[in-house]
Design brief:
By secondary structure, this protein is an alpha+beta fold. The protein is 37% helix and 22% strand. The chain folds into three domains: 19-101, Alpha-Beta Plaits; 109-141 and 318-359; 143-315, no CATH class. The protein has helices spanning 38-48, 79-83, 121-137, 153-162, 165-174, 181-192, 197-202, 209-220, 225-229, 234-258, 280-291, 352-359; strands at residues 2-3, 10-16, 26-34, 56-58, 67-75, 90-98, 107-119, 139-140, 266-269, 312-315, 317-318, 321-325, 329-330, 338-347. α4 (153-162) crosses α10 and α10 (234-258) packs across α11. The relative contact order is 0.16.
């Protein structure tokens, strides 16, 4: 089974409620994009608006290899400014104005249209059978692959929580499972020349803007790793911390499922306010934190307290709404194979890739 063979195979649109007005401090617009992460798309929009990334707020990150549509708010930026923006594979649709920025609380959920490819008749039967089970009983609510970015998100987050900012910068610049050839080459060069910031910066790809901001700071103040990281917008730095928390939660749920213990309704995403007990989930979290020389109190992020995270409860199992599977069709991208079209809705914070993973034989 192949997912996201082309961006058009994965369409996602936010379900969101906005209190619109004729006038207000915040401009609302829909951002439709392809082959862009949400953060990089907004960075480019901010650049063309001659504005700061901090003025833009959104409810969640959307996939890069996909066609996505989500609402964005921008503080005190006029409608006319947006109408003049032209960026490849990005479309902006003005919605209106309001008094509040968009945030996670604004989001109700997401609607998906997905095409699964490279299937045979046996695969189809398995998917049909499993879809009935998922519609009835749900599926484990793991954080999906998108939560972990290029594979370094949780690693960067762990080092920020520990206060090891030099190591966080090293993971940021040198480690990623990104398949982009230019990115791979740049990161290998950065690893070889780590500490020689000006040399790295001179050959650094322009599309890796977050890393470039860090490098620019280090060129000026070579050992100020905390200051370098603070050149990354706070919402993005929070993503790193949340990435590590998500990694822990996934491992905890995995341990419970392997032990054949019945899942509880909710489990805590670990933070400084979390109370762990002696159940299988808690034992696994304690073990992982101990191995990383951390405690729950470490999530206060003492050396970067603006990223402190109290933790939150997360449903262990979730159900899709309106899950429908179309009739098998010939797959034009894979010879002698079939494709299936899926449509469904998920609550906010739930990953469609995890639903698909549970359909796979």
């Amino acid at each position: 089974m192949k997912l996201k063979q082309i961006p058009e195979d994965f369409l996602v649109e936010e379900k969101i409620k906005l209190k619109k007005k004729k006038f207000g401090d915040y401009a609302y617009f829909y951002l439709a994009k392809k082959n862009w992460t949400t953060v990089r798309a907004i960075q480019e929009i901010a650049k063309q608006c001659h504005s700061s990334f901090k003025r833009f707020k959104f409810a969640g990150n959307k996939d890069r290899v996909a066609i996505t549509k989500q609402a964005i708010s921008a503080f005190k930026i006029s409608k006319e400014v947006f109408e003049n923006i032209k960026i490849k594979d990005i479309t902006i649709e003005f919605i209106g104005f309001g008094d509040e920025p968009i945030n996670l609380g604004t989001l109700e959920g997401n609607k998906f249209k997905i095409i699964l490819r490279d299937l045979n008749k046996k695969d189809i039967k398995i998917i049909m059978k499993k879809s009935k089970t998922i519609s009835k009983s749900g599926f484990p609510n793991y954080f999906g692959e998108q939560r972990f970015g290029g594979g370094n998100t949780a690693l960067i987050g762990r080092e920020i929580i520990r206060g090891y900012f030099k190591d966080a910068v090293k993971y940021l610049l040198t480690y990623s499972d990104d398949k982009n050839t230019e990115s791979v080459k740049a990161r290998k060069f950065a690893e070889k020349n780590f500490g020689d910031w000006n040399v790295i910066l001179q050959s650094w790809p322009k599309f890796l803007g977050i890393e470039a901001a860090v490098l620019n700071h280090l060129v000026k103040i070579p050992t100020d790793f905390a200051g370098a990281l603070r050149n990354i917008p706070k919402p993005i730095r929070r993503i790193y911390v949340h990435g590590y928390q998500s990694y822990l939660w996934n491992k905890g749920i995995e341990a419970v499922l392997k032990s054949k213990t019945k899942l509880k309704k909710e489990y805590p995403v670990p933070g400084f306010g979390t109370k762990l007990k002696n159940d299988k989930f808690s034992t696994e979290i304690k073990k992982l934190l101990f191995a990383d020389n951390l405690t729950l109190d470490s999530f206060r992020c003492a050396r970067m307290p603006e990223l402190a995270s109290e933790g939150v409860d997360r449903l262990a199992v979730t159900k899709p709404k309106k899950l429908k599977i179309g009739k098998p069709e010939s797959d034009e991208l894979n010879k002698n194979k079939l494709k299936l079209k899926l449509t469904f809705e998920l609550p906010k914070g739930v990953y469609a890739t995890e639903l698909v993973r549970n359909l796979d034989g």
